[in-house]
Design brief:
The complex is a heterodimer.
Chain A: E1 15-19, E2 25-29, H1 30-33, H2 37-46, E3 58-59, H3 65-77, H4 99-104, H5 109-122, H6 125-137, H7 144-151
Parallel strand pairs in A: 1-3
Antiparallel strand pairs in A: 1-2
Helix pairs in contact in A: 3-5, 5-6
Chain B: H1 3-6, H2 15-23, H3 27-34, H4 38-46, H5 51-55, E1 57-64, E2 68-74, E3 80-88, H6 92-97, H7 106-120, H8 127-134, E4 140-142, E5 148-152, E6 164-173, H9 178-192, E7 198-202, H10 208-220, E8 227-231, H11 241-250, E9 255-258, E10 277-282, H12 290-295, E11 298-303, H13 310-321, E12 330-334, E13 350-352, H14 361-366, E14 372-381, E15 384-394, E16 400-406, E17 410-415, H15 429-437
Parallel strand pairs in B: 1-7, 3-6, 7-8, 8-9, 9-10, 10-11, 11-12, 13-14
Antiparallel strand pairs in B: 1-2, 2-3, 4-6, 5-6, 12-17, 14-15, 15-16, 16-17
Helix pairs in contact in B: 3-4, 10-11
Chain lengths: 190, 438
């Protein structure tokens, strides 16, 4: 197991093996898997929490070893945290994060994207919500043009909503039958 | 690192995590995101049922008075309000007149500093992009997408005067703010699948054509406008009466608050209006005649500052006792003199109700053939406590009306619903205002 400072050493009785998409095996403490609803359900269904049951390695085809390592780091840190309670009524402007979380998620956006997918796949609500909140807070105070840059959105609006200047079209993302943006301005001056 | 590495590909996420992120966006952020492309707008529209938008929305108002605002308030905790505040963009001509045209604006200074910075970094300033951000959107200019956050409250007179967070976006528009505001209202309505709930208009701030346009865009073309509030103080300007009549003719909401103070000769015939009102609340009621009070087609009638006297009130009570039933269920009438409620029931035996029996209709019926049941009831609200003295009157057909007085001159008539077993009394801010000014 590659995570740092494990509180208790995993033994064959209290752990399972998960296999990442690139074939690397990770020994995972059953206590940690409680944070992942996917793994917890799997363990419950196959009765892997019983000592007399043979535990086959669990393949995680959607998760790379790097992502798994990152996830284990998260699970270890939150090992003794109370169960996550979903609270969606707050806006992105009101989010604050603890220093450890900020450092943990100080990663390139593409890694963040993959980590969010992994958190979604393994159903780790605290990690999933935290990444969603961080992503939402990155939009705060940004104009449409800035959001296009941050989220790499290619516009499919024929005229730019600010100037009326035609902008390159992205036919792949446009939808047939969509109405024109009602805030579209008058045609650009010739 | 490629661009894709630098960007977070939100739209490429599976639907569940993508929508989870979008649900955390503020209304302003959703509007901003929806402007990026038609595709993102369609995504934003799919999550419009989130609590922040439709479910939690309490009001979606347009206020056209000293301020020109679109306001959205949400009822979930913590309570908050989003305001799109429109200001007229200062034009170049007025700047020249003031001799300020040569003074660079903060934005210009920022652009100059950016140019110098990029020169040192050996990069070109993307003028077109900067321009694209700064230029107006059909008369609208969002100078910043960061709302100004302040703690606000609705003050002493509000039903809920607890403090809340107000997030204000300032938008500059060209000469006529009405069309840009309407454009944004339509856009928000479409994006969040919500409809305008109220319009507050000070008609003195606009000319006749503008008032007509406002009524057409924000009242006649709205299907579910719940409240219309009209203000404007013109007691010495009878020339405004025609505009007022035009506005009142065109208003079709069931809840109407008329807070304007017209000239003494102003008159409006409410029979012109097609709809029956639910609430008719008139702040300066000197222009309302006694006949109009008797005929007003509304459930709740609140008339402040009338010219009516005690005798008029007495006549209404007597008419009801003789079998007449008005359209309204509740009427509050602030008289032009002190009201002695006993004089409205004089010459009769009455039964003095104890406070614990005050609300029970059975007790009143049990006292028959005594028709009058006197009460003195403290009414406790967030505005304070007020004592209402009056009578529950039992009519021969079994109907009960509660008449009463508070703050010396505010008379009440409640025609109690036969469906309910308990007496109900409502209240109005005006009585408390009189008390506060005493």
């Amino acid at each position: 197991m590659s995570c740092e400072e494990p509180t208790t050493s995993p033994t064959p009785e209290n752990n399972i093996t998960v296999v990442s998409s690139d074939g690397k095996e990770f020994l995972l403490d059953l206590k940690l898997t409680e944070q992942s609803e996917t793994l917890a359900r799997l363990i419950s269904n196959f009765e892997y929490d019983r000592t007399d049951v043979k535990k086959d390695p669990v393949p995680l085809g959607n998760i790379t070893s790097a992502q798994m390592q990152k996830i284990i780091e998260w699970l270890q840190h939150h090992r003794y945290y109370p169960k996550w309670e979903q609270n969606d009524i707050h806006y992105s402007t009101s989010f604050t994060f603890e220093t450890w979380v900020e450092e943990y998620l100080n990663i390139p956006n593409n890694e963040m994207f993959e980590l969010l997918n992994a958190a979604n796949y393994l159903n780790i609500p605290r990690l999933f919500s935290t990444i969603c909140r961080i992503m939402a807070s990155r939009i705060t105070g940004k104009s449409a043009e800035q959001i296009r840059t941050v989220l790499n959105i290619k516009t499919d609006v024929k005229n730019d909503v600010y100037t009326g200047i035609p902008i390159q079209e992205d036919s792949s993302s446009s939808e047939d039958g969509m109405s024109e943006i009602s805030l579209s301005p008058s045609p650009p001056p010739i | 690192m490629t661009t894709e590495n630098l960007c977070f590909q939100l739209l490429k996420l599976p639907v569940v995590p993508r929508n989870h992120v979008l649900k955390l966006f503020t209304p302003v952020e959703l509007i901003s995101l929806s402007l990026t492309s038609r595709h993102t707008k369609s995504i934003c529209k799919t999550i419009r049922g989130v609590y922040q938008c439709k479910k939690g929305m309490e009001t979606f108002d347009v206020r056209l008075n000293s301020n020109r605002d679109i306001r959205m308030s949400f009822k979930y905790f913590p309570k908050c309000e989003w305001v799109f505040h429109f200001e007229k963009e200062p034009n170049r001509k007025s700047l020249i007149e003031l001799g300020l045209d040569r003074i660079p604006s903060f934005e210009t200074l920022k652009q100059w500093l950016n140019r110098i910075w990029y020169m040192f970094r050996g990069k070109h300033v993307n003028d077109q992009k900067t321009d694209r951000m700064g230029k107006s959107l059909e008369g609208l200019k969002f100078l910043s997408w960061i709302p100004v956050e302040k703690t606000a409250s609705y003050g002493r007179g509000a039903i809920d005067s607890s403090p809340f967070k107000r997030h204000t976006m300032t938008i500059y528009s060209s000469d006529n703010v009405i069309l840009p505001i309407h454009k944004l209202v339509l856009y928000i309505s479409d994006l969040f699948n919500i409809e305008l709930t109220s319009l507050g208009l000070n008609y003195t701030k606009f000319n006749a054509d503008e008032n007509r346009m406002i009524m057409s865009l924000f009242v006649l073309s709205q299907k579910n406008l719940k409240l219309f509030q009209l203000t404007g103080i013109t007691p010495t300007d009878p020339s405004k009466n025609d505009i007022l009549i035009q506005i009142l003719k065109n208003q079709n909401t069931v809840n109407t608050r008329l807070l304007f103070n017209p000239s003494p000769k102003f008159f409006f015939d409410f029979n012109i209006c097609c709809q029956s009102f639910k609430v008719m609340d008139i702040d300066y009621s000197h222009w309302i005649s006694f006949k109009q009070i008797l005929e007003m087609k509304t459930e709740l009638l609140y008339l402040s500052r009338t010219t009516l006297l005690e005798n008029d009130f007495k006549v209404i009570v007597q008419k009801w006792r003789n079998g007449w039933t008005p359209h309204w269920k509740i009427a509050m009438i602030e008289l032009n003199e002190v009201l002695n409620i006993d004089s409205c029931a004089e010459g009769e035996d009455f039964f003095q109700l104890e406070n614990q029996h005050f609300v029970h209709k059975d007790v009143i019926r049990r006292n028959w053939p005594i028709e009058l049941n006197k009460f003195e009831q403290p009414l406790i609200t967030t505005w304070g406590t007020i004592i209402r003295t009056g009578y529950h009157i039992l009519r021969a057909d079994g109907m009960i009306a509660s008449i009463g007085v508070e703050s010396d001159r505010v008379g009440w008539i409640h025609i109690q619903s036969p469906k309910h077993t308990r007496i109900s009394l409502s209240n109005h801010l005006r009585s408390y205002e009189i008390l506060w000014n005493m």
